[in-house]
């Protein structure tokens, strides 16, 4: 029987989708998020459908102590994870000068610090298990986005970190993936309080997961999977375009020009 997959942001959206897909493959899952009632409902569903162990860990990743607390809780339960999916994250949308400082601090803590420290804490287990690491980044991380400056910057960090880990762990058997979806049918836009993030075609959670698992199952996978052919073209164009042009196009795309 496969080992346990730890999934943050598991109470809804892409995180919950990963939990369902991994449970269907026979993996035990550890569900991490703030909303305990949603996690318990999902855990009960997965136990009933797939006869797997589903452990609920309530945690607020905006708390700097959360990554260490999650790692300690896993140790206390004797859970040695074979996989980690960092799906928790949120965005803010406004000119940087108008951003609420406390909200920005929480955004950086969840999207960057918590993801980094939880990955570091669990990575030895993942390598030993020849398991899987998925960091949910974003198509937004392929270029700076005026009007979404902090969110895009945090996702650029996630993609960069994941690519480096992919290279460092080559030959260990660990599968490492930075998943970069565009707009997806989740609660993300409600939490952000803005439709500004809806740049490009909106995909379903199943669309995103199909691409994620196709990448993970590939014989020689790339470290980055951008979801959707149009988004892949957009990401390539952002890398090769002159900097001033790239910023102008990005500002127009999010309506900040």
CA radius of gyration? 18 Å
SSE topology string: EHEHEHEHEHEHHEHH
List the total number of helices: 9
- DSSP summary, beta strand count: 7
CATH level-1 class: Alpha Beta
How far apart are the termini?
53 Å
> What is the CATH T-level topology?
Rossmann fold
Q: Give the structural class.
A: alpha/beta
> What portion of residues belong to β-strands?
5-15%
Please give the order of strands in the largest beta sheet.
3-2-1-4-5-6-7
Q: Assign a percent range to the helix content.
A: 40-55%
Backbone shape? globular
The biggest beta sheet is recorded as: 7 strands, parallel
Q: Mind telling me which CATH architecture this is?
A: 3-Layer(aba) Sandwich
- Give the CATH H-level superfamily: NAD(P)-binding Rossmann-like Domain
Query: What's the number of domains?
Result: 1
List low-pLDDT spans: none
Question: Average pLDDT value?
Answer: 89
Pfam family, one: adh_short
Protein name: Oxidoreductase
Family: Belongs to the short-chain dehydrogenases/reductases (SDR) family.
Keywords: Oxidoreductase
What's the topology here?
Blueprint: E1 4-8, H1 13-24, E2 28-33, H2 36-50, E3 54-58, H3 66-76, E4 83-86, H4 101-128, E5 132-136, H5 149-168, E6 175-180, H6 188-192, H7 205-217, E7 224-226, H8 229-240, H9 243-253
Parallel strand pairs: 1-2, 1-4, 2-3, 4-5, 5-6, 6-7
